[in-house]
Amino acid sequence: MVLKEINISDIDIFNPRFLIPYSKIAAELFNSIKDIGIINPPIVIKNDKEYLILTGFKRISISEELGLNTVFCRVVSKNEISFDQCIKIIYEDNKDRYTDIEICELCRKHIDNGNDVKQFLKLIDYPTTEKNIQRFTYLSNIDSRIRNYYLDEKLNPEQCFFLSQIDTEDALLLLNKVIVPFRFNTNETREFLSELKDIYIRDDKPISQIVEGVINTQEDITKNSIRLKIKKLRSPRLVEVEKEYNEIVKSLELPKGVLISYSPYFENNYIEVKTRIDSENKLNELKILFENEDNFKRLLDLIKLVRGE
């Protein structure tokens, strides 16, 4: 591999063989190249009369946009390097910047050349655990339309992984009508999909039909209303539990300013008693509340209720 100044016009910039799709070019990188030039020269393959980009698509594109005619590159002859070596070089040159999405795009290229996920992971010295093989198998087969949401910074890698495990059309419906418009985070996406799958298995109903049913039966749709509706579909008893909970709290006849709350949808196994104590009278009110045998029993009933006992 030698360092050489090359005419940008001699570089096949649009050849996609080793191109890993990327999001918009960061202003920091553009300004850095504009001010001080390219610090880490791209790697290109000498291919007859043209050069094929191995790494550095963004760096070369920026150079062209800045009106530069030449760029210093590290050059290797096509006869001196194998396809596997090319994949390894791309990974090593970008591993500090790549997420699992970019790595899986690279994996896809390796698979298309007659390999499998395990061989790819071995090539880049990545642990070949069953968990990793499963994860990279799903992500390397993800639909480009889903990947584009990631490139547009509307999804993170974990959300892409969750969506790669369901039907593509169902995933796109969720993206367009739920996850993106209501800005579901990673945990919300994981939980929502898990509940959808449970309903799908129990009712033998398509995910798209479940989602459409939830959306079309609500007027003022919010993130919380969608999540609550799915939870109620998955666990019909949730409505009964909420009713029973409210009846017990009402029977306590709480002093003014004392609140008993639970986590949304009874996700945690506890209740919280909240109040502000600013006087001896307030403290006495709480003492009476907890010392009363009936109230103590009701509070125990609340705890058992939220714990599902």
Task: Give your account of this protein's structure.
The protein is built from 15 helices and seven strands. The protein is of the alpha/beta class and 309 residues long. The protein has three domains: 1-81, Conserved hypothetical protein from pyrococcus furiosus pfu- 392566-001, ParB domain; 144-234, no CATH class; 239-306, no CATH class. The chain has a five-stranded mixed β-sheet with strand order 1-5-3-4-2. Helix 3 (83-94) runs antiparallel to helix 4 and helix 4 (100-112) packs across helix 6 (130-140). The longest helix is centred in the middle third of the chain and has 18 residues, at 186-203. The chain is elongated and about 90 Å long. The mean pLDDT is 91.
Reconstruct the topology from this structure.
Layout lengths: L1 E6 L3 E2 L14 H10 L6 E5 L2 E6 L1 H9 L4 E8 L5 H12 L5 H13 L4 H7 L6 H11 L3 H8 L5 H7 L4 H12 L6 H18 L3 H10 L6 H12 L2 H16 L6 E4 L8 E4 L5 H12 L1 H14 L3
Parallel strand pairs: 2-4, 3-5
Antiparallel strand pairs: 1-5, 3-4, 6-7
Assign a percent range to the helix content.
55-70%
Distance between the termini: 68 Å
Percent of residues in β-strands: 5-15%
Mean pLDDT, to the nearest integer, reads 91
Domain module tally: 3
The structure class reads alpha/beta
Name its key features.
309 residues, two-stranded antiparallel sheet, 15 helices, 11% strand, elongated
